[in-house]
Design goal:
There is one protein chain. This protein is α+β, with helices and mostly antiparallel strands. The strands form 4 sheets. The chain has a 5-stranded antiparallel β-sheet with strand order 1-2-3-5-4. A 3-stranded antiparallel β-sheet has the order 6-7-8. Strands 11-12-13 form a 3-stranded antiparallel β-sheet. It is elongated. It starts with a strand and ends with a strand.
Length: 334
C-alpha cells in the first residue's frame, strides 16, 4: 500500500479469520513500552476507530479500511456531522488514556459507513524532540517542495508539541480544531512558505476568523473552533466530549441567513433614520417639553469582543449578542 516514515504498509489476508488486514512493518524494533501502549490501543473498540488486531516485535496488524482522506471545504452540515464522528473516536480513546498525537486529514478516512480515525497513539513510536527552524522530529517529518510549500503533519501540531512537550488530550483537540477549520474554510488556519514561518504561525499568530473565510459560518461555531486553537492548553476545551456537546447545540439551531456587510450598513441607517423621524414627530406633536435623553453604559465581559450583531429584546429591556460559548444577556435596568 505504500511506505512512510514508520516503514511499509501491506495489504494482506488473515487466513485464520478470512479477513483483509493492513500490516505496518517498522524499520526498527518496538520498545517494550510501545508494545504495552499498542496493546492498550487494541482494547479500543469503536465504530469510528481503526481497530488494531495484533502487535509484533516490528509490525502491527490493523483493520483494513477503504476510504478517502478528508478534504475541505464541505457543506456546513456535513462538516458538523464528520466532526461529531471524529470527536466520538477521540473521546473513546481519551477515556482509556490514549492520545492520538498525530491527528490530520490523512489519518481520517471517509468510508461508506462514516469516519475511521487511523493510527491512534502510533506517533510515540519514535522520540519527538522540540521543533525548531533547522530540524523536525522523525515522526513529524516535513517535506519542502521546489515551490517552498510545506507538506506533512507539522501544520496540525499543537504549540506544546512544536516546543517539544509531551502531548495530551488537549493536543488532540488543537489538531481537531485545525482539521475542522480546514473542513469549513478549505484552508489551514496556520500557514507558512518555510518551516520557520509555519512554526512561528503556530506559536504566535491568531488564525483568521472562520466567518471571514466562510460568511455563513455561525459565530458560535467560529468561537468553538477558536477555543480549540488556543495556544495555551488550559484555555482550550478540556475534553472531546465538551466540544461534541457544543457542536450538537450549534447543529440543532437553524442555519442563519446572514446578509452582506453593505446590507447590514443600509439596514442600520434605515433604522437610525426611522428613529430620528419618530423622535422629530414626537417633539413636534408633544404638548410639553420633551424629557432629556437617557444614557447608560453596558460593559461587556472580559475577553469578549463586541460583534457586528447586537439585539434589543422586543420589550426594550434587555441587550443580547453572541459570545464565546453562547449568548451574552444584559438587563438594561441593571
Amino acid at each position: 500500500l505504500g511506505a512512510g516514515g514508520m516503514g511499509e504498509v501491506w495489504k494482506a489476508r488473515d487466513t485464520r479469520l478470512n479477513r483483509l488486514v493492513a500490516i505496518k512493518a517498522s524499520h526498527t524494533s518496538f520498545s517494550e513500552r510501545f508494545e504495552r501502549e499498542a496493546r492498550a490501543i487494541a482494547a479500543v473498540n469503536h465504530p469510528h476507530v481503526c481497530s488494531l488486531y495484533d502487535v509484533g516485535p516490528d509490525y502491527l496488524v490493523m483493520e483494513y479500511v477503504e476510504g478517502k482522506s478528508l478534504h475541505g471545504p464541505v457543506p456546513l452540515a456535513q462538516a458538523l456531522a464528520l466532526a461529531e464522528q471524529i470527536l466520538d473516536a477521540l473521546d473513546a480513546a481519551h477515556q482509556k488514556g490514549i492520545v492520538h498525537r498525530d491527528l490530520k486529514p490523512d489519518n481520517i478516512l471517509l468510508t461508506k459507513s462514516g469516519v475511521k480515525v487511523l493510527d491512534f497513539g502510533l506517533a510515540r513510536i519514535t522520540h519527538a524532540p522540540a521543533v525548531d527552524s533547522l530540524s523536525l522530529a522523525q515522526t513529524h517529518a516535513v517535506s519542502l517542495t521546489a515551490e517552498g510549500s510545506i507538506l506533512g503533519t507539522l501544520p496540525y501540531m499543537s504549540p506544546e508539541q512544536v516546543e517539544g512537550h509531551d502531548a495530551d488530550a488537549r493536543s488532540d483537540i488543537f489538531a481537531f480544531g485545525v482539521v475542522l477549520y480546514e473542513l469549513i474554510a478549505g484552508t489551514r488556519p496556520f500557514t507558512g512558505k518555510t518551516q520557520a514561518n509555519l512554526v512561528a504561525s503556530i506559536l504566535k499568530e491568531e488564525p483568521r476568523h472562520l466567518f471571514e473565510m466562510q460568511p455563513r459560518t455561525p459565530r458560535g461555531l467560529a468561537e468553538v473552533v477558536r477555543t480549540c486553537l488556543e495556544k495555551d492548553p488550559e484555555k482550550r476545551w478540556q475534553s472531546a466530549r465538551d466540544v461534541r456537546h457544543a457542536l450538537r447545540l450549534i447543529a440543532a439551531q437553524p442555519e442563519p441567513s446572514i446578509p452582506s456587510r453593505s446590507v447590514r450598513v443600509w439596514q442600520g441607517l434605515a433604522v437610525a433614520m426611522a428613529a430620528i423621524a419618530l423622535g422629530i414627530g414626537a417633539w413636534v406633536f408633544q404638548p410639553t417639553a420633551p424629557t432629556s435623553p437617557g444614557r447608560f453604559e453596558a460593559p461587556v465581559p472580559d475577553n469578549v469582543t463586541l460583534p457586528d450583531y447586537v439585539s434589543v429584546s422586543p420589550d426594550g429591556r434587555k441587550l443580547v449578542f453572541p459570545a464565546a460559548q453562547g449568548l451574552w444577556l444584559r438587563d438594561l435596568g441593571a
